[in-house]
Amino acid sequence: MKLFIIFCLLLPLVFGGDPRKCSGFPATREGLIEAAFNVVNSRKIINYTQGPRRWSGIANGICPSDDVPPYADCSSFVTWLYWSLFGSYPDYLNRARWTGGYTGTLADNGMPVSLNDAQPGDVVLYRTGNRPYSHAALYVGENRVISYGSTGPAKLLNVGFFPNKSYDLRTYPDFFAVGTPCNGVQGTCIDTDTTTCSKPLIAGKCRGPNFVKCCPE
C-alpha cells in the first residue's frame, strides 16, 4: 500500500507535470492579474514577516483561487503570485528555485521598462533616494498596483502611493513567451504540454522553458 501511495505521488514528476503549479488561472499576463485581483477581493489577512515563513504560500502549495499565504513580505508575495501560475517554469524572477530572493533579485533579474511601456504583470520596485529597493508590487495597468507590505489584506493602489519614494519597473518576458511571434521565423510560440502543432516544431526560437517551442506557419 505504501509503495502504491509513493508511486501516485511521483506520477506528476515522472510524466513532466509539476504539482506546484495552480490551475485556477491561465498562465498568461491576464491570468496573473486575475489571480492578484482575486486575492485583493478576498480581503483575507496575511501576516507580515521577513523570516523564513514568508515563503509559506509556495512551501504549502497555496493557490490564490483558494486562499492566501499565512505569512509573506512584499517580494515573496509577488513571487508567490508568479509561482501560482508559472510554478513549472524556472524562477526567472529571483533565480532562486522559487523560495528565495528579495527586492534586489527582482531588480537584478528583470528587464527595465518605463511606465509608458509597462504591461500588467510587470513588477514595480520602490526606493528612497539612492538606497536599495525596499518594496515590490505587481503592476496591473492604468497606473495601479496590487501591493502587500504589512499585516492585513493585499490592496489595490495608485502606482505612486508611496510618499517620498521613487519607483522603477521590471518585466520578465521569459514567462510570457506563449502566444508571441517566434524569433526570426514565421510562427507562434506555444506550450507544447498543452497545445499541438500541425507542423514540425522549431526549438530555440522562443523565450521561456524548453516546453515552449515555435509552431511554424
Can you walk through the features of this model?
With 217 residues, the protein is an alpha+beta fold. It has two domains: 22-172, Alpha-Beta Complex (endopeptidase fold (from Nostoc punctiforme)); 177-217, no CATH class. It is built from five helices and ten strands, in the order ααβαβααββββββββ. It has a six-stranded antiparallel β-sheet. Pfam families: NLPC_P60 (PF00877). GO terms for molecular function: cysteine-type peptidase activity.
Task: Give the topology.
Elements: H1 2-14, H2 29-42, E1 47-48, H3 56-59, E2 71-72, H4 74-86, H5 103-109, E3 111-113, E4 123-127, E5 135-141, E6 144-147, E7 155-158, E8 166-171, E9 187-191, E10 212-216
Parallel strand pairs: 1-2
Antiparallel strand pairs: 3-8, 4-5, 4-8, 5-6, 6-7, 9-10
Domain NlpC/P60: 35-179
Protein name: 4799_t:CDS:1
GO molecular function: cysteine-type peptidase activity
